[in-house]
Known about the structure:
With about 625 residues, this protein is of the alpha/beta class.
Amino acid sequence: MNFSLTETQKKIVNHLDGAIMVTAGPGSGKTRVLTERIINLLNQNQKRILTLTFSNKAAEEIRERIESRIINDEMRQQVYIGTIHSFCLEVVLNRGNLIGLPSNMVIFESESDRISILKKIFNDYPELRAQISDLFDEKRNIYKQCLRQISIYKSKFILPEVLLDSNKKFDLTFSKLYEAYNNLMMAQRALDIDDILFYAFRIFTERPQIANTYTRLYKHIFIDEAQDLNIAQYKVIRALAIGFSNVMMVGDPAQSIYGFNGSESELMMKSFREDFNPIEYQLIENFRSTKKIVEAAKKIQANSNSSAVYPLEGVFLVRSFENEKLEAKWVVNKIESLLEHGSAWVEGVLKSENIAVIARNKYILSSVSEILEQKNIPYNLGHSSRSVESESNAIKIFEAGIRVIINPFDNVHFSQILNLLNYKDVIEKSNENEFYLNLLLNIDLSKLEPEYQKLYLAIKESWEILLNNEENFTKAIDVLNTKLVNKEMNNKSINEEIETEQFFIQKDLEMWKINWKNYCNQSVSGQRNLAHFRNLVSIGKTYSFNKSGVSLLTVHGSQGLEYDVVFLIGITEGVFPDYRAKGEKETRQEVNNMFVAITRAKRECYITFPLSRKMPWGDYRPQKASRFIELIEL
């Protein structure tokens, strides 16, 4: 079991009881040590292990590694592996009634849905809108500013009533909107993403016996990438683990890159130490990257203890180009050459899946993606956001209807359907006890244009299939495919607008079919339902990660991944580091970002930047090499 582990790694794997903190540098075998310790605990009959990560992709990787080692289903069922949000969502949905939450709550993860809530509040209370408008920048979107402020309060677990004790005019005024937003969300039986942690925390603190139930069930709690904990996440873990010591945190302060979401490595390095008094271990050997890459990374992050293990020199090269088009062309040509001729530093055939192009933001990647498409070189864009949204109006209507089936109180999506159908009337409930689902299924066809009548009837047929049996999701999709997709798409008479809508309908149907298939792989036949499915979609648990082709990633999307060859592109001042990084904390985050980006590379790393960049208005603006390049070349 311990074959080829270092002495420190063996100590971590064989640690059975008590809190433990592992500071693990890039390429130090963090995931391997974590999974080996889980396997060892299972073999020691220390049953039931809760493993929490920050992304579904990381959870999937850990799950794959563990399942490849587990020999029976009984052991497999002893390990829960998921994100902090997915675990807390189960707590809220299963135990929320204990703090007065209604049953069958659903997630409004879409910003547009939550903006609809704010619009209704402002329409009902115009004087409140005037008061709120005075608090914010009139040149920016008022709804997005309000949602951001609500998220800030919720992430700190601040209730509207707490703001009433504030002596600040902003807090006192905003508390009215905050309370109205919460009340309307509750009337819709809806949660936003921040509510998941907020209500889980309330459950654990207001009903401590529930926390005790979980810590009796799980003998060990593992927290991966602990440097990226924010205060809300840490408080939830702390509330869960009151009087419980078998907590393991693994992370690296030098790789803390989620400061914009409120993460702070001090929660791991200081708060966890104070609260749990853990035994501490350091993993500093870099088993991933060659010497030149490790040396460059240490110039960026001077306080990194990472040390190269491989005797290989590898490649680390910095190049400039006249503009971003020439930069992208060189990168793609280099990728072509590597795929054709291989790398002197990589044994065997170098595959496109082992190459990544990383940038500070997604817009920098567009020139590379264009050329890869032109040359028919396969690529992927890494993992998506939590939100899975349809592009076609037809499937937007279908999906909104699913939400109303799940939650008959859902006025937001009922209204959205009427707008998408261009319904020529206002539908009001006759009484408070009437459900929107009844109204949806009995729409007056005479108030619809003929084309929308046909569309509505086809989608209604699929809804009725689901109302009869919620597990018949694939059948409902197949009905939509039959009714809505024109099989004669090569007909020259079809106009471009219809052709585009048909294309998006097909893609949307494929997307929802794949999400349902992935949900079925995670659930048991006979116990599946639309509410559970839709909530897992909302937190990204049904997303299929595309690993084929060259990976085009942002720095944040690359964390935890590794590639034989990495290209870091667009490395200029104002882009990387980001122009908004003014203060000490933001600047430190950018240093960490660069450190993470470089250490994704195993054998070859290329840093490129343009000397000029075309701006949105058409002019070319001179660019300056990033300060990070100056550090590396010292």
